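Why predict the complex rather than its parts? Because the way molecules touch one another can change local conformation, and only a joint prediction can capture that. The input here totals 648 residues.
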Amino acid sequence: MITMSPRPATATAGKAFVPIDPDYEARVRASFGRQGAMRLIGARLSALRPGYCAIELPFRDDLTQQHGYVHAGIIGAIVDSAGGYAGFTLFPADASVLTVEYKLNLLAPAAGERLIAEAEVVKPGRTLAIVRGEVYAEADCKRTLCAIMQQTLIVLLGKADG
Amino acid sequence: MITMSPRPATATAGKAFVPIDPDYEARVRASFGRQGAMRLIGARLSALRPGYCAIELPFRDDLTQQHGYVHAGIIGAIVDSAGGYAGFTLFPADASVLTVEYKLNLLAPAAGERLIAEAEVVKPGRTLAIVRGEVYAEADCKRTLCAIMQQTLIVLLGKADG
Amino acid sequence: MITMSPRPATATAGKAFVPIDPDYEARVRASFGRQGAMRLIGARLSALRPGYCAIELPFRDDLTQQHGYVHAGIIGAIVDSAGGYAGFTLFPADASVLTVEYKLNLLAPAAGERLIAEAEVVKPGRTLAIVRGEVYAEADCKRTLCAIMQQTLIVLLGKADG
Amino acid sequence: MITMSPRPATATAGKAFVPIDPDYEARVRASFGRQGAMRLIGARLSALRPGYCAIELPFRDDLTQQHGYVHAGIIGAIVDSAGGYAGFTLFPADASVLTVEYKLNLLAPAAGERLIAEAEVVKPGRTLAIVRGEVYAEADCKRTLCAIMQQTLIVLLGKADG
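Output of the joint prediction:
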């Protein structure tokens, strides 16, 4: 029988990322605060460290698709934001971040009390950053992997975000 | 000099799709009406024909990312829905549609009066359907291509949508 | 009944691309000639114009996957090259091209006498270019769409390709 | 300063996969042996366990793109095969595997003595399986992450592979 529990991609122990801008957290939180879309859907930035960002989204009826699960586009929105800010933690203070592209696989219906999108930088760079993300649905303290993402970000130098 | 106007992918004239379910429009509109997320963001289904769907989204401040443009995730949400319903027009009456995955490239900042997401089935099938989509920003009656999408849908037979 | 013929993505009439480098064709052909992988699999550059490239691949038994169709990776290889050179036609003479990422959907088994990969630039840019591609299988003068691609290229300025 | 070492996606400890077919290894190796494309490029299946597959590719001049690195399409070919066989280990004995789609991000030039593509199933299923992959370049016993992949497979029941 096939066990259905999520299995991670091959994990290689990596050195921790050291941010160029020690004040990255204030910069990320201010930028997140300007995202009207995150406020509209009720998402909040729940964890942040260099190269990593998590966003939490409590379940609401007005976030659903036709079967009552969270809409794939809303799942995409939180994991795209998580990815963008995972990358942004590593950018210089005078740079902005834009998503070049993302690709999302939906693995299970997004139901439960809340979703948690986690994203981690796989490869930072001066021009582009490559990020992977996962979205989990939490119900009764149990987590189900419901989406995975692969994303490309671009660093806009000399364009401070604020 | 490089002209910046959008250029389509190679277009081959195709025969029109003939839907299995002649009442596809009522079925799609009822399903769209159940999408809480589309209502929340103010999206409306603006055009529908076999294998094709367009969704319109008037610009609002609460749909933005940190620079005041429409959030990439919201762009993904409308073009994912447009793609899903483009496919759904061709499904049997007792089937549901789910997104397996989508991939979105962002080409230009999504600003203006409204966005229009268009999606068209490239390859229908009994189990999977493959769809392409575009998102345009309209301002002063001028359209700018701001995103393109490639998507895989799955047909859930024997699970009527309603 | 659903007709199975391929349908293009929404086509918007676009102005023709004007290349920065009038000698783009010689530059592309010289670069293609340096691709050992294209020679190994027997691919040839069959058409080229600003923002567009086609690559032809005669069927061979040593290009197959386990069922005797052309391997998805070989399909990816020719359409990735076609996309890269579609973009490269529009680059300055002293720039190189690299693929940032591509996403390929397989639509039908790649069988027949030969494959034709076509790619067209959707959005050129100073740093990135976005491209769409299709792969057709030809048998008895009939074309079947067997794959579609979406791709991001990066322009490496000041690094002539040769 | 940003450290450039690869960082994995968030890893969650998963239960091991238990294959339906205890003879999965013989089935995978026989199928791999039928892939003309893998033989042509000199790839070999280097590791296999339930839900996991690794493919090794020694560097050769005839696998290159225009700058002398391994062609993105060849990188795609080995990681697509690794993904397909990672999924195939978990399929029933009378089923075949086909790639629905894959998306590949190129992170670093693929140079060195050999490439190693690793792929792991993230979500198995009765109809679809979702897989992640990485490609490493090895030189002087040092590994560089040069590509990451996200892939969808389809299970073709009742169509034994051989």
